[in-house]
Fold:
Amino acid sequence: MRFKCVSKSWSSLITRTPFTRNHLKSVSLQNPKTIDLKLLILLPCGFKSLNLAKSFDEGAALIRLRFWTNGYKLILGSCHGLVCLGLEYIPRYLLLRNPSTGESKVLPNCNLFPDKPHLHFHYYGFGSDSSSGDYKLLLMIDGKIVIFSKNSWRIIHEARWPCYSCYTKGIYSNGALHWQDHHGRRIYAFDLTMERFRLGPSLDALMLGHRQKLFGAGETLYSIKEVKNSMDVEY
Structure:
């Protein structure tokens, strides 16, 4: 939503939950091949947007965003235009920000471990519960799965981390967070509605042996592989 200086009736309409959900649904139903894929990149000079549909030689693929970092240097995840940021790998000073509108919200510190004030998290991810539309932040703290949703923290005692040889950041797509193992053979998914893990799809055997990373765009999960100093995008 680029412009919000409208009449009170329009403002009331476009800020209602049903309107935003329907808008996101209509965008997600578009053919991903017709949409320019963009990556949000955090550099020392600030945030930049990388458009994968444009040529790198033209210099138009990388655009600097007017998005202050204020010391935040860790992207915990992004979903539906919202970005979750952290200062370090600690469950404090977490921020939720909308780069398009400039709005932001500081999340309350995690108080589930009062006897361990110096805890760090290792695995993390941010996404949306497709059934309720609620946004959830997942952290793995002290061997436990911790989720922030509806303005409070809680431990998911039933969930067990499936693989400790995964990349630390979970990639959101289609109502779940996805982690890729370091061998590049398996993807583990955490369903944000059921709040439990499942085994994700196996990666293409042709990609084995190549450096690859997952990322999400809309409701589609993509993989980037590097072959002979070039970069291919698959989904």
In short: Confidence is low (pLDDT under 50) at residues 228-235. Helices lie at 8-14, 17-28. The chain has two helices and 18 strands. The first helix runs from residue 8 to 14.
